[in-house]
Amino acid sequence: AAEQAARIKKLQEQEKRQKVEFRKRMEQEVSQFIQATGEPRRRFQPMNKIERSILHDVAEVAGLTSFSFGDDEDSRYVMVFKKEFAPSDEELDAYRRGEEWDPARAEERRRLRELAAQQEEAERDSGPAPPGPPNDYKDKYRHLIGSDAAKAAARTMEANKAYGCVPVANKRDTRSIEEAMNEIRAKKRLRQAEDE
Fold this sequence. Notes:
mainly alpha, 3 strands
């Protein structure tokens, strides 16, 4: 058991050392990326979850934007973007689909979507009105509600202006709470005495 504990401790220390070395290496690569003026983004090699989290942390500390892409755990990779070249939603979607980002193709897609939306709107405006229900639901229940029952009820109904307020004339009990409680207790004692 002692040997196994020693081996586990040694493995943990080795793992910790590897993480520290990896973090230093990523910090160097990120600083090189920041200093490279013509490079708006950098794609890193596929790495495991812990290494990706370390790289995301390094990028965040350096003031960069980072995203992970890829389908399965073995092929996921990190892309780091400079703040001034932050990716658009369309660019991120392209990377998520596994495609390379092409601004010209994206502009063409956007133009086609706008054209399709305009055509659809023109068809809606020029086409016949969408079909509605064949009859009004009020017609179905006319024998129950009549033709103008709701309108007449709305005219005759008035709100109580003094809702929640009790006029002084309606207040008959002028006793305090203590007096009322004492009277209740006295009646209770009297009933108990009669029962005994």
